Amino acid sequence: MQKEAKLKKKYRSSNGEHVRATKKKRVSRSAGGDFLIVLMLVSIGAFMSLPFVLSVANAFKPLEEIFIFPPRFYAINPTFDNFKQLFRLSTNLWVPFSRYIFNSIFVSVIVTTFHIIFAAMCAYPLAKGNFPGRKQIFLIIQTALLFTGGTLAIPVYIVMSVLRMVDTYWALILPPIAGSLGLFLMRQFMLQIESETLESARIDGATELQIFWQVVMPLVKPAWLTLLIFSFKDIWNATGTSVIYSEELKMLPTALSQIATGGIARAGVGAAAALIMMIPPMIVFIISQSNVIETMSYSGIK
Amino acid sequence: MKLSEKKNAVVVNAPGTWKKPTLWQQIKKNKTSYFMMAPFLVLFFIFTVIPVISSLLLSFTYFNMLEWPSWRGLANYQQLLLEDDVFVIAVKNTLIFAFITGPISYVLCFVFAWFINELPNKVRPIMTFIFYLPSLSGAAFFVIWATIFSSDSYGYVNAFLMQWGLIDGPIKWLTDPAYNFKVIVIIELWLSLGTSFLSFVAGFRNVSSELYEAGAIDGIRNRFQELFSITIPSMKPQMMFGAVMQIAASFAIGNVGAILSGFPSTNYSVHTVTMHIRDYGNVRYEMGYAAAISFMLTVVMILTRNVITKLLNPDE
Q1: pLDDT number for residue A9
Q2: Distance separating alpha carbons of residues B277 and B283, to the nearest angstrom
Q3: Residue A231 has pLDDT above 90, yes or no
């Protein structure tokens, strides 16, 4: 009895008529539920944004305000002094400051680009192929994610010195290109692609590489846009101090921490530097996420 | 149809007879696949596989980074499992941390990603941005939490509780073993909306909207039904990704406790396996022993991963 009623309910709309003909895009949402969701997101979101608000405030505080306890989330006498001092200090370096900026941007762009391409190219056969060793290769890469770093630093250093890569750009660029997180992410999204879509492209005479570029990559756009954030954020904040000694190869985080570690007097400079460091990953995030929302897959996805 | 089924079907030995292709034939037929994987796999082998294997070998040695490693056999593991009392505390703490923060954070990541997906298009990136801010804003969060849970009466929690007469004097939230564990759990949860959260946000975008339209026609009436009968089944790959990332993150917990409660913490109250590795690797320079600890941790993580995989994907 109850089952029957449930089945009946399944195909009836609220006013008792069949819903079959309605061309609604999505199921309607209750206003109360919408309100609750917004309320929760806003209140918790306010809490999530506290550290950022404090970072911004600190960067604009004069030195004496930074150490007030408990810390204020605004500056009483906002000033650009910290930024001015940072600029002055950065122009007095042995290596021109622009060199650090170049290093950071150069390495971040190269790593992120090649990481996404190589990881996606490797993920495609692992997700949709059918060849010997497919499962084992993926399992090894996925397991690598569970290996907590720390103890790997020394073996990695030895490998690099054997390859004569220590103190070169290669040491910064090559290891993160083969990060297992990116491969795992790309492979999971590619699993959702319908094999029929790939098959019809194959029948049209497309090569595997063409299918990869023209069919697969557009379908998993949300995945590589997200990977763009992960990869860029990590490499932008990486110091690379264990494999880089030459001053002219160092990246921004190292340079800025060298400037900011001048005791308490440099605390304001440190706050300004921290804020500036946050800006590029944020820009990447905003570009990426505003593109993620535009993708709404209609076909080709299971 | 799989990537190479069509190609495999062409492997015919003699007219009229069809034989299962041999391993070598299968490899030859799939050479494009291997070529596509090669760039990643070569780098992965050099910078991950070789270091992991050498680190595994190091775990059977005594290695202080100055002298050549000397072979100890299983002595490191023996010492770890039978003699190291602090390791037992670290394991206990790590397991409790992992089994509390792992699942809760996983659910939080999913629920918030879902909530955000329910928002109109224009607001969605802004909300995602705000929830991802703790991951973007580097070290600034430590200052916030150190202030909120400060041990004197100026700390926000202490000031609030004292004003309401709930406590008589300030509580040392971060250093008193009676409280610091719970406080660290809260902070870890707050911090944990990172990788899994963002991949869920993207995963919600990768569900075919045809499915939702079909669902609406088939009489799905509210967002919960839609979530459980369409979204979650379609998002299985992302759910799996999130689960593995949660395992990796929750078993590696320790850094937050070390910064806020001190390293080592009072009576090792928030000491974890990761911090034990740091203690031996970066403080005492006993790299062999540190490698042994990290392998024990990896084994536990692999076992957990296998259980979770079975739960999420019973048919695989």
Answers
A1: 40
A2: 9
A3: yes
Lowest mean pLDDT among A19-28, B143-152, B196-205: A19-28
| C-beta atoms of A131 and B301 within 8 A | no
Looking at beta carbons, which residues of chain B come within 8 Å of A282? 129, 136
- Domain count for chain B: 1
For residue B264, cis peptide bond before it (omega within 30 degrees of 0): yes
* ipTM score over 0.85, yes or no: yes
- Residues of B within 8 A of A14 (CB-CB) are 221
Between positions 241 and 270 of B, the ones with CB within 8 A of A are: 241, 244-245, 247-248, 251-252
Q: Is residue B69 part of a domain?
A: no
**Chain A CB within 8 Å of residue B203 CB:** yes
Number of structural domains in chain A: 2
| Average pLDDT for B199-203 | 92
Contacts of B33 in chain A (CB under 8 A): 125, 129, 131, 208
- Answer yes or no: is B8 within a domain: no
Longest dimension (CA), chain B: 92
Same domain, A48 and A153: no
CATH number at residue A180: 1.10.3720.10
Q: Is the pLDDT of residue A228 over 80?
A: yes
Residue A54 belongs to a domain: yes
Phi, psi of B14 (to 5 degrees): -140, 155
Boundary (domain end) residue, out of A24, A49, A79: A79
pLDDT of residue A64: 80
Considering the domain architecture, whether residues A214 and A178 belong to the same structural domain is answered as yes
Q: How many CA atoms lie within 13 A of A199 on its CB side?
A: 9
Q: Are A121 and B39 in contact (CB under 8 A)?
A: yes
Average pLDDT of the residues in A183-190: 95
Determine if the peptide bond prior to A70 is cis (ω within 30°).
Answer: yes
A197 has a chain B CB within 8 A of its CB: no
Same domain for A62 and A105, yes or no, is no
A71 and B147 in contact by Cβ < 8 A? Answer: yes
Give B14's pLDDT tier (boundaries 50, 70, 90).
low
Mean pLDDT estimate for chain A:
83
Indicate whether B294 pLDDT > 50: yes
For residues A220 and A185, the answer to whether their CB atoms sit within 8 Å is no
B54 domain-assigned:
no
Q: Which domain holds residue B204?
A: 85-312
Mean pLDDT of B31-57: 93
Q: Does B112 touch chain A (CB under 8 A)?
A: yes
Q: How distant is the Cα of A247 from the closest Cα of chain B, in angstroms?
A: 24
Asked if residue B203 is part of any domain, the answer here is yes
- Is residue A167, in this structure, part of any structural domain at all? yes
C-alpha distance across the termini of chain B, in Å: 18
- Give percent above pLDDT 70 in chain A: 84
A94: containing domain: 88-292
In a domain, A121, yes or no: yes
Task: Give the span between the Cα atoms of B154 and B174, in whole angstroms.
Answer: 14
